Fold:
Amino acid sequence: MGALVDALRRLGSLVRRHELEDRLDDEIRFHVEQQIEKNRRAGMAPVEARRQALIRFGGVEQMRERTRDEFRAGLIEHLARDVRYGLRSLRRHPGFTAMAVLSLSIGIGANATIFGVARAILFRESPLHDPATLVNIYESDAGRPFAPMSHPNIEDLRKGTTDVFRGTAASTFAVAQIDGGGTVSMVMGEAVTGGAFTLFGVEPALGRAILPEDDIARGGHPVVMLSHGYWQRAFGSDPQVIGRALKMSGRSYTIIGVAPASYRGGLPAVTPAFYLPMSMVDEVMGIEMLDQRNFHNFVLRARLAPGVTRAQAEHAASLVATSLNTARPEGWIPGEQFVFVPTSDVQVLPGVDPLLRAAAWLLLAVVALVLLLACTNLASFLLARAVDRGPEVAVRRALGATRGALARQLLVESALLGLAGAAGGLALALVLLNVLLSIDLPLPYGIRLDLHFGLDQTALLDWRVLTLTAVCGVLAGGLLGLLPAIQGTRAHPGSALNAGGRGSDAAGPVRWRSALVIAQIAISLVLLVGAGLFLRSWQQMLAVDPGFGRAPTSILSVMMPVTRSKPGDAVQRTRRLLERFRTLPGIEAVGLVWPLPLEFSSSHTDFTIDGRLPPPGREAFRSERAWVDGAFFDAAGMAIVAGRTFNDGDRRNSQPVAIISQAMARRYWPDGDALGRILRRPDPAEADLVIVGVASDINVRSLGEAPRDVVYECYTQGDGLPGFSFVARSATDPAQISPALVAAAQEIDPDLRVYQSMTMTRHLALSRLPAQIGAVLLVAFAAIGMALAAVGVYGMVRYSVAMRTREVGIRMALGADAAGVARMLATHGVRLVLFGGVIGVAASLVAARFLATLLFGVGTFDPVALIGAPLALGIAAWLAAYLPARRASRVDPLAALRAE
Amino acid sequence: MVKDKSDVLQGTLDMLVLRALQLEPMHGWGIAERIEQWSEQVLQLGQGSLYPALYRMERQDFIRSEWRVTDNNRRARYYSLTARGRRYMNESLAQWRRMSRAINLVLDVTAVS
Structure:
């Protein structure tokens, strides 16, 4: 109770601060006057009476300070006073304050942004119940260690492992045409095994989840669950959405539930818009994939039964693989195994995760360096201020302020800067996240990354990021403030007052500041070299010729509704489409291909060659495979280097023929006699092929890859295909051709599902995306880093110049020329820059080795980056050092001398 | 006739100030004067400690203060005891008496022996 009253009283006196100050002044005056009067009554002369009274009273300032301490004693009061004083002092130096806060904001903002995004992609925690017992299962053979599963394989695996798993759940991409009241859009969702949500322990946010009874009869369960993000985007978070109908791919589905915001589905990297029962995927996609053993498109997750170890489950799975190897069902890849990876270890795909993690760590390291630069800037400024404040500190010390109080004052000021920086950083992070999330990535099939779970971008800045930001801010402010605080309060009253205003015993701080500048230059140089390497990498990537699509080209990807037509019918329809496309104005050539090169899907075929043994341990050779029509090569800008292309004579009942890639021809028939040879295929479903042509090489799986063996088959000779990409080379802007293609396609065949329409440029941009993102981000951060370093150098030189104003005045008065003086003043800065540069180059050489896996076509010792980066930084730093020096050398000598 | 002058013992200042205020409200200078007078000029209050003590005790609710006009028509801050302050003073006084008696006993014993 008493303590509370006391606290309130203290708070009250805080408010009445001025009143109390005035009261104390009045009391002191009264006291002294009373004493004077008394002295005079005792017979002293007026002057003497006054003198004695003042002596008797003692040190007024000291007493005043102590009394103040009394009526505002306690931490809150001191803090409040220090904060108020700190704010005032920061306001008095707006340039310094703005620069310090801006530096910190940039450092903290960059960190908060990158941490937020990295967390969303890589370190998101799994909302799955008991993740330790969950495993992801992949198919694995020599070429592809972590391939998606095919559904028949999943079924066989499930039947053979019922006693080691409590349950299994498969997921696959389901692209649906959703009719949103007039506008039809392609939306990507996920088909899941019924009961998957229960298996993973994911509770729906609304309604119910997809249950096992929703997933029994093929095509018999038109129910759909919405993802949280899609529910917000398309339905405005309407709680009444349950039970409503959603028209998907021409059929009405009942909305049964909404998934929680934290659940992002089971597909790699992307967040689906909706969830369907697996039994509906064939219908919604309009293709048959559930029964095709060679359709590797399913992610399988399983929960271990209680008491069963992963090794035991792996053993059970290997028995299934062995029996499949013996039975050889159609479409089974001989020698395949099932591999298990703990679900919590998988971020996107086990194959690409190491690369993604490396990239994320690189980015985090980069932003950490930026923050470090920002903090050194702040430290450097604070140090300069502490030296500047030497006289002020000395005066306050002489007036009775304790060292602790002064140090506290400086700390509070630094902490204020830190907090302001944290606030600015947060604001910056919000802006950056907004920008990042609004960037239109060239992703296919209407895929959305939904990093922010469909929520506001603030959702990315969760408490961890916020705490981190705040701690960064306060620590940066507090810790860096500590140094100048110790340094500043050590100043002895006498020496600082005598030094003529400028702290003369400043050798220590100047040395420390020089060290900071050297560190800044070195750090920013490392960033710049890294950025240079990534820029070069991107440049190399842009220079890569994928071997196709150089001319203006647009691409139209469709799914064939084969389930509702006879195989011959599909070819007829496709031919009609091609003919219609050829009549469109502006189009020079149209061909079709499946799968589209450099897209996610790929296809391969096994074959043997007479007189040539397959590789050891294998029964056949393997190559990439694509179905095309005869016009594809021309439309894609490829060349037939030998033989012929496909023509109308290549029909379903004629001799099956193949065109092979130049690389393949060279490998197997180096003498150039590939034409007429036969590819014998062990799979009974695939006919032997006669080679009739050789086509120029293209990149199939990744840009810049070594030319691969590719077998092109004629689409008219295959069974019905799930879909095609039409490739249309045009004389005009391909972006204008695309709508015409879509319209023509729907006019010819209203059942056709158009799932993608884009230009070739955009398609190729997807392959270049990682290099582009890397280059853009690194260059941006390196530029920020360079700017921070330049500000650091500028501040340092400007400050040391200010300290030498008198010296400059004397030199000028003695006849030194301005240029010489400027050179002299800049020399120190330039020397530091050179020193930092040498360290930086050495450090970059070490750092570059860690980048090797992320770079494309650039060695880690890249002369362009290693010369260009120091050059850029050198120019910036030289300007930063020279400008303030030159300005100082222009001063009027007399004014400079008088300034002291 | 110079008497020994000593600073007020640490911790006893509060007691002396409260004691001085026991009879009537007084301003700072009056308190200092009264203590000096009572102690026959032995105890001299350093103003450096008087005012901080006054402000502290006011915060602790032992005394309160108000502006009044002095006899010779000057404005001065008058301090007066609160009930809490009176209690506190009585407690510390009792303790002081016990303490000084004990010390005196010890000193007397040593003097006799």
Summary: The interface with chain B takes residues 2, 5-6, 9-10, 13, 23-24, 26-28, 30-31, 33-35, 38, 56-59, 62-63, 66-67, 69-71, 73 of chain A (CB under 8 Å). Residues 561-751 of chain A form one domain. The two ends of chain A are 57 Å apart (CA to CA).
